[in-house]
């Protein structure tokens, strides 16, 4: 059986198997927090596997970008959201039908679900046919909807459901109450006693008075008295209720699998656009990156950490944006600078940028040209090993060995302060060996380190430095720029922090 038409995957390419568990690097890059925020409120659609599974080709990335560009139209997006709300109501009706104890009530839930479904699908088909669509994904789905709603099977389904509902709405009957006895009879023109009672007591009304009426809760379940009344009505109109039963049996599986798939898949796009909307409104740029399976060139302007931006915008501030680039033969960005200067945030932004691009999504930045990685590897310090120096070194070596065994020339590696548990000399020796192995593999790498010497390994290595304020070396700017590493530039800030500047020392020893 062929898979339903998809608006997430091109029809002429194999679909990657969905990954239910997040990739290993998600936590290091804070993408677990990002995906959690994106999918919040849409748990019923099970969207996380889509956000865990990168695309393998630039054509698949372009396929999704086309759909997203169409969905940037706010009016189209609103119509699709309305369709999704209707489909949720359909599922609620069907769920109520499954839980219903009485057959007649169960059939009414199904009948309402069918009618609601047909109305929603017809409306969506009309909207898409009139929209200025450009994407292959939405155009293909629109073609399917046009053919589906024009089919005799769908027209018959919609007409029969609506006809049965109209007939049900037109039914009139009389309920006689004699003590504890309830009797259902055909309506024979009996007067409406509620109107007579209202008119009788109207003369006692004296202006505006306190309102004592209240509404009974409309419970979805029927009690046994209501069920017997309904059975009595069904006996009076046996032909109509028999047709309803046959209708529900014949259309037990009325949902079109392609429409059900669309309802779920389109949430992937809608959820992300809703997530980035407040960031855009705050002035942060997003762009559709150019991706390549062959070029290793990296060029991106005004890049920022998406997880940090989500947090800061809610607090009323903005993250600092940075530019980055790698051109042949450059392969490794070595990032140095003071602690808490934005180095790790920069590295995370680099990883987020490439993974979001591989999902076919707009990425944080004004412009971006990126390679499409086959894998992303990260090496960040594990909190549980923070105080175990021996354990940290062993963990560093084992994890790096696994990365070297698994990485390919299309992989991206992000290293954050590796070998910090050993001596400076050993850390430099080990880091140089690992960097040489990365260069031999031809991977792209961002390496956050306290070792300036790593930035001087040759033409394939680029130095980037986290800047401090020129007026106050203790003030971080969170700007990361291309420039030669110079650890001495931060010596004054460190000396001042610990009271070791010439003036501070002289003041202390002065008699």
End-to-end separation: 91 Å
**Sheet/helix structural class:** alpha/beta
The fraction of residues in strands falls at 5-15%
- Please state the average pLDDT score: 90
User: What spatial form do the alpha-carbon principal axes imply?
Assistant: elongated
Which radius of gyration do the C-alpha atoms yield? 33 Å
What is the correct CATH architecture of the domain at 285-509?
A: 3-Layer(aba) Sandwich
* Uncertain spans: none
DSSP, total strands: 14
CATH homologous superfamily designation of the domain at 285-509: P-loop containing nucleotide triphosphate hydrolases
Number of helices: 17
Percent in helix: 40-55%
Note the main sheet. Answer: 6 strands, mixed
- CATH class annotation of the domain at 285-509: Alpha Beta
Q: Record the strand order, biggest sheet.
A: 10-11-12-7-13-14
At the fold tier of CATH, the topology name of the domain at 285-509 is Rossmann fold
Walk me through this protein's architecture.
By secondary structure, the protein is an alpha/beta fold. The protein has a domain at 285-509: Rossmann fold, CATH 3.40.50.300. The protein is built from 17 helices and 14 strands. The chain has helices at 31-39, 48-52, 58-71, 74-99, 103-130, 136-150, 152-170, 193-202, 224-236, 238-250, 257-281, 306-315, 343-358, 389-406, 424-441, 491-497, 502-509, and strands spanning 173-178, 181-186, 286-287, 290-292, 298-303, 322-326, 332-336, 363-364, 367-371, 376-379, 412-416, 444-448, 461-468, 476-482. The strands form four sheets. It has a six-stranded mixed beta sheet with strand order 10-11-12-7-13-14, with helices on both faces. Strands 4-9-5-6 form a four-stranded mixed beta sheet, covered by helices on one side. Strand 11, helix 15 (424-441) and strand 12 form a beta-alpha-beta unit. The chain is elongated, with a radius of gyration of 33 Å. The termini are far apart. 33% of the residues are buried. The mean pLDDT is 90.
